Amino acid sequence: MPDDKSAAIFFFSGTGNTWWASRQIARQLNKIGWNAAYHSIEQIDPAEISPLMDSADVIGFGFPIYGSDAPANFKSFLRTLPVLTPPKPAFGFVTQWLWSGDGCNFLEKSLAEKGFHLRWTVEFNMFNNIALPVVPLPYEPDTEKLAPRLPPLEDQVNDFCMRITNGQPYRMHNRWHNKLSAWIQRGPFRLTHDKWGSYWSVDAEKCTGCERCARICPVGNISMHANLARHNDHCVMCLRCFNFCPDYAVRYLNADNQRLTEKPPFQGPVSEFKPEMLIKK
């Protein structure tokens, strides 16, 4: 493979899993001999997008799966992209806990309308980031305990990158039954998205007015009023404000967060991750 091949990867990550996957893909492509860079959609300046896409041979897109769907802000990002002429090959990847049905394959039509030929897709089963008291799912916040689970994921990244490098098309879970099964989650999720996103509140006794939640919210859904954080009406359900509040003051359905003092929420797959790494400085 010539060393002048290049890739531009655009990703959204709420609590770190997709950031990790994006970084690993870029690192592995660079190791193979490509010139690959990954860009958080929260940081990238709109004026920079067209030059990056024009200069890249392959375009990558990554996001976390929410209810077998893409986060609302990522779909908005796709809608704002310019149309490529001529079309270019693209790869897509998602991070998920257990299952999503068809991964990111459902975006094929939307990407094609923008001039992207989706040739490679993959799903990375990573770590559950849901620590909400009202959703008692198992999760692990200790990155030392998570570390042994990373090497198999790195192997999956390496295999995916070799398929891209070799020009070998690969569409994980792209059969009709995968697409049909995805709608078990995707349909209800889309119908109830705005409703579930409206159940956030802040414990006035715990909130110190540090403003971190407002700074790191990817869609500006949190504002400060009288030194107290307040959620508005366009949450994308990334959980970043809940997981990274230093005082566990963000609540969902008014549930008590006391258990978080004993077991903190998931805050990324590796200790170096901070949500501030993803936002515009």
3D structure, described in words:
This protein has 281 residues and is an alpha/beta fold. The protein has two domains: 6-183, 3-Layer(aba) Sandwich (Rossmann fold), CATH 3.40.50.360; 197-256, Alpha-Beta Plaits (2-Layer Sandwich). The chain is 33% helix and 19% strand. It has nine helices and ten strands. The protein has helices at residues 17-32, 46-55, 72-80, 108-113, 143-146, 150-165, 176-196, 212-216, 240-244, and strands at 6-11, 35-40, 58-64, 88-96, 116-125, 170-171, 200-202, 222-225, 228-231, 250-252. The strands form three sheets. The protein has a six-stranded parallel beta sheet, with helices on both faces. The protein has a two-stranded antiparallel sheet with strand order 7-10. Strand 8 (222-225) and strand 9 (228-231) form a beta hairpin. Helix 1 (17-32) crosses helix 6. The chain is globular. The chain starts with 5 loop residues before the first strand and ends in a 29-residue tail after the last strand.
